[in-house]
Amino acid sequence: MPKLDTEKRICFVGGGNMASAIIGGLVAQGYPASNIIVSEPYAAAREALTSKFNVHTTEDNAAAMAAGPADVVIIAVKPQVMKDVAAGIAAAVQQHKPLVITIAAGIRGSDLANWLGGNGVAVVRVMPNTPALVGEGATGMFAAASVTDAQKDLAASILGAVSKATSWVEKEELIDVVTALSGSGPAYFFLLVESIAAAAVELGLPADVARNLAAQTCLGAGRMMIDGTDEPAELRRKVTSPNGTTEAAIKSFEADGFREIAKKAIVAATKRGEELGNALSK
Ligand SMILES: NC(=O)C1=CN([C@@H]2O[C@H](COP(=O)(O)OP(=O)(O)OC[C@H]3O[C@@H](n4cnc5c(N)ncnc54)[C@H](OP(=O)(O)O)[C@@H]3O)[C@@H](O)[C@H]2O)C=CC1
Ligand SMILES: O=C(O)[C@@H]1CCC=N1
After folding, report:
1. What's this model's pTM, rounded to 2 decimal places?
2. Between helices 17-28 and 43-53, what is the axis angle to 10°?
3. Which residues are NADP(+)-binding (predicted)?
4. Which ranges of the chain have pLDDT less than 50?
5. 183 CB near ligand 2 (under 6 Å)
6. Which pLDDT score, from 0 to 100, does residue 68 have?
């Protein structure tokens, strides 16, 4: 992982959930809050960012970019407002030529570069996830051929500071698959924990006990997949005693088409990313 240069001034445009997760992760890793500025229209969100992380905030995107000026701009607004937001900061981007990192689902790097005025603006498209807040993010990244190795290293070092897994993908379309897998992925595990805990509550466990046991099981299973060398299928096999309780549950999952359900969901999310990119292109 390239070394993180904490001297770089980072400007976040949009200070919502995902920006907060990355900022929180960076600050927790020792990134100086004085080198982070966030532009966010919602006053309560600005106040929360300042009080939690001590970062500078403003409601003026162009002013946030110019303050410093920023070496890196991380655009963290919803895909639907991206084009307008880009138009509002294009002049500052053209003037200061920062590295631009977009985390928006679907939006293509080439579209964003055009909205920012083109002219060789360096755009790296990344897909992090909210566990970045606790330094456990997983991030996929794509850069066009025109982005230099130094710029790619800078992007990787920033996302790497809040991610335990970072990977470059060769084709931009694959970022939509990454979005479906790990960008949206935390929600799938939350849904699973919600579902199995709710079932346990119906069977008599107190809600807090069910939630804590289910959440810790999720974490423990994740740690075994990360720390050990066994593949997930082998780890599953080791839990599954012949004719035991796990086998009963797994058979029930399989009989109800669990793998098909999972595949369908990943395909749906990938398709949604592509749709967003197509609908908002140009
Ligand atoms: N949430 C996640 O897990 C992940 C999200 N992403 C991507 O990150 C991006 C942000 O998502 P998320 O953080 O969830 O969304 P949020 O709505 O939480 O954050 C977006 C923020 O941008 C602000 N905003 C709206 N308009 C502007 C503007 N014109 N200028 C500056 N800021 C503006 C919003 O303010 P207000 O609320 O006042 O409108 C809001 O605080 C999306 O593109 C999403 O695809 C990527 C990976 C994971
Ligand atoms: O749901 C979304 O569109 C965003 C992108 C990945 C996670 N949240």
Report:
1. 0.96
2. 10
3. 76-79
4. none
5. yes
6. 86
- 3-class DSSP assignment, residue 101: strand
Q: Which of 279, 260, 239 is nearest to 105 (CA)?
A: 279
ipTM: 0.98
One-letter amino acid at 218 equals C
The pLDDT value recorded for residue 21 is 92
11 lines ligand 1 (CB under 6 A): no
Whether 77 lines ligand 1, by a CB cut-off of 6 Å, is yes
CB 75 within 8 Å of CB 14:
yes
Nearest alpha carbon to residue 100 among 165, 60, 147: 147
Closest ligand to C-alpha of residue 64 is 1
The type of residue at 143 is A
Q: SS3 sequence, 124-143?
A: EEEECCHHHHHCCEEEEEEE
Structure tokens at 176: 């939509």
Report pLDDT for 2. Answer: 87
Q: What is the pLDDT of residue 67?
A: 87
- Residue 1: the pLDDT is 85
Ligand that comes closest to the CA of residue 14: 1
Q: Are 22 and 64 in contact (CB under 8 A)?
A: no
pLDDT at 109: 96
| Burial group, residue 251, by CB count within 10 angstroms (0-12, 13-18, 19+) | exposed
209 labeled part of a ligand binding site = no
Distance between CA atoms of residues 160 and 31, nearest Å: 13
Joined together, the tokens standing for residue 270 give: 């990938």
State how far Cα 184 lies from the chain centre: 8
Q: What letter represents residue 59's amino acid?
A: E
Structure tokens at 187: 């929600």
